[in-house]
Write the structure tokens for this entry.
Amino acid sequence: MPVSLRPRGRAIVPAAAAALLLAACGTSADPAPPERPRTTAQPVRLPEPLLERPVDTARLSPLELAAVGRAELIERAACMRRYGFDDRVRFTRSLYATLPDRSYGVMTEEEARRHGYHMAPDVDPRVPANQKKQTDLVTSRPPRTAADRRVRALVLYGTASDTLTEADARRADGPQPLREAKVIGTYKDRPVREGGCAEEARTRIVGDGGSERNPVAMRIYLNGFAQAQKDPEVRRAVKAWSSCMARKGYAYDSPLDAGTDLPTARGPAPDAREKTVARADMACKHTTRLIEVWSAAEARHERRAMAGEKSALAAETARKKRMLERALKVLATTEDAAS
Amino acid sequence: MHMKKSAALIVAAAAIATGASVAPAVAQNDGRCTTSVSSNLFGELCLYYNSGLSGSHADFNVPTRDHAGYVFSSSGSGQGQPVKNNAASATNLDPDCTASIYYNSGWSGPADYIPAKSSVSRLNNTYNNNASNHWECP
């Protein structure tokens, strides 16, 4: 039974039905060219993360999730083209423009100097442009009517409803068996399946019926952070950092709270004062070796937890490896996809 | 032109839709968890007071720097309670973007990631430790 988040409703409307049938007959416009294949495929290698955690063998980092997401988008566009739409992926943003690791607050001197406690303007969620949803899937024939939008949603997502099905809810619990999705109708004589092109693309890259989430690794990563925070060595380092900041005139108990009280914290850009505080923060992190001490404690807790989850983590590690291999292969064979 | 049985199936499936594309613009924390496939709003991140996607929920459709000041808004257990550091489970209704829930305000600390159109029936470290949220879109 689906998990219902909103009451279902709406009866069949004959007028809408007629519009859908017309929409299904297609249009005569020439499709936009798809993404260009790379003539000489170069292997794509993602840069090393700022902090590499033991559990990251199985956990997908934000950049890895971005690579998987972009590969899925390319597959989605190809799927939509098979139904006669002209979707393609227009790479408007860098693959590498993901939110930076802020595990212990601001993490690098360069970030502090350039952006204070903010992030680069192309990713900072306070920048108005980043508060709007933008994906790189484009079509030259956007749907104009409600009926067209519904048809497009059905082909793309296999549903146009706000309801999360039980399969959706289970997807984040880890790998799910690969099953042929139920046919919910046809469009231009091709079967449309539950989940639509989005699910087809996800399955193709992920490799099973689950989502991109590896839940055991995620749990170990999050718990490792929580345990490290209570670790005596980390507490000492945090106290030393706080004293260092106090000597510079800033009162913060934890680097995770630093900068949140500044008047610019709500705005889209830092001012000179924010940058000054962030640089002092980094200087104190350097003096007290806060990042090294904290990340080492986190790694210890992760390793301890990993020892108790060997088989689950081996499966998640293999799952991540295969998922990334498939994603990077798609990116490597598509012009501009890995830029 | 005659309506084929298969086309009728599509129509029937479309009619099941709750009308997200024609519904009025959704608002942050208006007590309704909705997708937003036809607009430039994110499909909502819904944070639930209880595990298993139960109890009162709060719905977010823009990146939110600090959950302080928000309360669980829909009817159910926990309605009126503060959202910050109080969520037990979550749903990401965006069909395209990964939702992230951060341990600290200002998108810092570790984050739990919820892939597009899926849910986490019990948040891990962000369980009762949620302070900010965001989406990453491909």
About this structure: Residues 310-332 of chain A form the longest helix (23 residues). Chain A has eleven helices and four strands.
